[in-house]
Each structure stands twice: as C-alpha cells, then as structure tokens.
What does this fold into?
Amino acid sequence: MPGTDLSIQIGALTLANPLIAASGCFGYGVEYAEAVDLSTLGGVAVKGLFLKEREGHPPERIVETPSGMLNAIGLQGIGVHRFVREKLPELRRLRATVIVNICGSTLDEYVELARILSDAEGVAALELNISCPNIKEGGITFGCSLHGTFDVVSAVKKVTPLPVIPKLTPNVTDVASLARASEDAGADAVSLVNTFLAMAIDVETRRPILSNIVGGLSGPAIRPIAVRMVYECRRAVKIPVVGMGGIASARDALEFIIAGASAVQVGTANFVDPFIWGKLLDGVTDYMRRHGVERVADLVGTIDTTAREKQWISS
Amino acid sequence: MIRNTRLSSDYNVIALEAPDIAAATQPGQFVMVKSGRSGDPLLRRPFSVFEVLRSNTRVDGLTLLSKRIGVTTSMLFDAVEGDTISCLGPLGRPFELVDPPAEAWMVAGGVGLAPFATLGEALLARGTQTTLFYGARSGAELFYLDWFRSRGIRLVLSTEDGSVGDRARITIPLERQLRELGSGPSRASGRPEPVEGRIPDPGSRPESEVMVYACGPEPMLEAVARVAAKFKRPSQVSVERTMGCGMGGCYSCVIPVRDAAGSERTRPTTHHYVRSCIGGPVFRGDEIAWD
It folds into this structure.
C-alpha cells in the first residue's frame, strides 16, 4: 500500500502535514515541547508579537461558555527582540516549522517586524494578526477594512521573502472580500477565523466577567460558522486557505479540509488535550486510507454540493 | 477513580489510580482534571495533589481534595468507583522545602488544605518541625485533623463560628504566634541590633528560622504574606487563578509580580504578569504585587 502524503504547500513553504498549532493557544511553542515533538507538527504559530513587550489585560482574562471559551488576554508578550533572542534558537533546535504571528499599531510596525523576522534564522512564515478583537490599538483597524487589509499585506510583502498569511477576522459582513483583498495584495495564503467578538456577564454582580468587558469566543461552539466562512473564502480566492475554529477531532479537521482549507490550526482543543496532535494525524491518515486518498492535498475543497438523487424511503 | 470519600455535604476526597503522576509529584504541584467527555465543561480545572497513595514501597495513586462549587467539582462529588477522570500533570512550580533547625508553619484556609498533606510529609521526612494553622467556617469543615496529628504535625485551629479553636480567621492565631516568636534573624527589624552582646527577649526565639507556607483564598494569602513580612519571616503562597490550560499556553492565569529592583521596563507599571501555571502556583509572598 503506498504511503499517504500529508504534505501541504503554502506558497513556497511545504508543511509536513496540515496540522498547525494556533497562535495564542500554544505559547511560544517551547512550553509544549515536553508534551509533543514540535517537529511532528505541520507548523507552530507562536503567540502574537509586537515590537515591544506588552503587559496584556488584567485578570479575569478568560471565561468558559457552553462548548467554548471567551478570552481577552490582550496580547501579553515578550516582544520580537526577546523572541528572536530567547525562543527562536530553542524552536530551531526542536526543528519546529515556525510561523510567527505579528501585530502592529501602525503599518510601519508591521514592516519593521517583518524585516526583523526575515533576517532571523528559523522563521518559516509570517502570519499577520489583523484580527485580534481584544486590543484597541492593534491590527483590527486594518483587518476590518478592504483597504487596510490590502495596504498591510502589500507593505509586508515588499520587505520579506517569507510567505505572508494574513489572519482574518470573522467579525465582518463578508470575510471572503477580505480574503480577496489579501490575494490582490500578494498574500501567499489567508488564515481564518480569529475569534468572534462576544461577552459574558455575572448576573449576580451585573458585572462583565472579563476585565476587558468583551472578548473573543473560540472552541467547538464556533466551528460551524468557521466552516462556512472557510467555504466562502475558498470559493473567492485561489491562494490556500488555512482554516480554524473549534477543531477538536480528526473529523473536525477533515470538515475544514473538505470545505476548502489546505491546512488547519488547532487552538482551544490543545488546552484540553496537549496530546491531541498524534490523535488528529492518525485520524486524518486513517480517513485517507479508508477513502483511498493518497495526498491530503487532493482532499482540499472536495465538498460535493451537487443535488442528491432522490431516494424512495419506505415508511 | 478508585474511591470517593465524602467528608461532608460539599467536600470529598477522590482517589485516582495514577501511579506515574503520583510518583512524579512534588509538594505544591497540581493536576488539570477533566470530568466528563462533553464540551460543557470544556476546559480542565486545576487541583492540588492532596495525598500520594503508597502501599509498601509502591506508589499507587493520588487523591484530590474537592469542594463542590461548580460543574467540575459537582461531577467529582458524584463520581463513582470505576469512572475515568482525565488527569494531566504533575504541573507547576512546587514549594521549596526547609531543613532543621528551621521550622515550617503551614497555613490552610478551607479547601486550601490540599497541598499540605504532601508538603507536611516531605518536611517531616527531613526532620523539619511542622505546624499546621488551619481555618474553616466551622469545626465540621476541618478535615483530616487526625491524619496530621498522628504524623506529629502540631495543629492550630480556628473557625469562623468558634466551634473549634479561635473564633477568628486563621491569620489571627498565626499573627499571635509570630509575635510570640519575635522577628526573624535574617533581616533587621525596627531598631538596629548590636552585633555582639545582644540580649534576647526572654521566651522569644529570635534566632530560629520559620518558613510560612500558605494556601487558601487570595485575601487570606495576602494577609499571610503581609503578616509574615511584618515579622521578617519568609513566606511561600500557593495561588489559584482562573486557568485555561495549566501548561503556559493560554496566558489566562496570570498574577502580578513585582519587577525586580533596577529592572529595565518599557511599561508604566512596576509589576508584570506571570503565568501562575508555570511560574507558580507557588510564589514567594513578597514577590506578588498584592495591590
């Protein structure tokens, strides 16, 4: 039996398999090195980095909701310089495919971040965070408009040879138009969805539970909406779509791939089960064997929307 | 799950067959527990390892002390023998132990008793004199007293209703005994001490080292840290913050920690947030920015 080919192409970048640890849900990757061999992942999207160190929001920062969680961490982080100095060598040693998620308050900051990371050794791709719902000054101002998305992607593309993947917000009327703007600006892929803007209130105290009042909803609760958005984007653009939103099993990952995702990211489920990666990969491989699919790339976007033949059902 | 022992209408002790986790656990470490397989609750919850179970020389498992408050603790309260409870660990930075002649004073509030069974055993194994200050709402909520007493741990008790021990929060007897002990030797107290020829106060033991350990509600931890500092005694506190993953991935369980003196910061504040799952749950009482 021929082996299954799990590799995926994102621009010039080849991923060993379509499973990527989602930014903001995997620290800087090194935190999980004891639980999972990082080199076995398709990619590791590290926590969003600004130029400078950031303190983040005061607690409470998360609250659990049915089949999901809301977070407003506020992009606490060590900044790009400390990342390059302190984390990247370790990630190189662990042979991780590192996707660095970058956030800026201005166009210049994105460009500066892209320059620094292009010069650093061991960065495989840049994910542009233009969709964090939890900070006022961040890239969401770019990510909510077609012009903003176009401008930031094209500015970054000009200064880096690395694949550029803008991460899109679902908190818009038409996410597919943002994907098109990204493609027009030269993006190598798009990733979606970031979290859905949401809130939770303690009715006894009548206070919001999160210190930031609102936060981003993730987890299985958002999966069907995310699948729909990935499907819409796949139809709108030719560049690869990286799908995410509540993936907690191989079946969920396959749902995104069939809807049109070339690769998938897993976030919240990793919190519950840091050993999930092997199970996901086994499940996808098993599915490919059962369905006679040799290359996972051949599964991408294979959703069948043709009308079904009517069948008589005896009552 | 090999045993569910109900201690009251809210408290129970769950025994889990988890020899590998139990054998690797150091006092103060925790496990992340997932009860049930559904998406509600979705996330794991942190629990201190209460006891490490041994038969002869073998480690068989561990227990968790739980108080029924939310969904996960209710499921743990209702769990029956044979249930599978997913348990991730051991996680976190453990307590630092002290050796004789230093003494250990452990301060527990309610379900904050949990880390002190393993800590007490580890301290006694080193020959360290150990005291447990233990406060609860009432005498009916003071558990495992014989367990600690029979191992040679001195008990100081208090209850909010006065049914057992002082009618006070546990920090009141703690402060009284710290005062009786006098100030610690390592740092100068109010007035300068002559290097030689110093006459100690009768009855006080100013040369003895005492390490104060605390676990319980955060206001209690703050009070313990402050009263320990007042008498120049070092303290270690085990905090509990809303936790998402327990492994440093989500940055939700942060606690403000004072910046080191002279550290260069680009932020306006004098503290920084540290993930209590991997930077803690045990912190020095004086490193947390309580206000």
Remarks:
- Chain B touches chain A through 29 residues (CB under 8 Å).
- Residues 187-206 of chain B have pLDDT under 50 and may be disordered.
- The two ends of chain B are 41 Å apart (CA to CA).
- DSSP finds six helices and 16 strands in chain B.
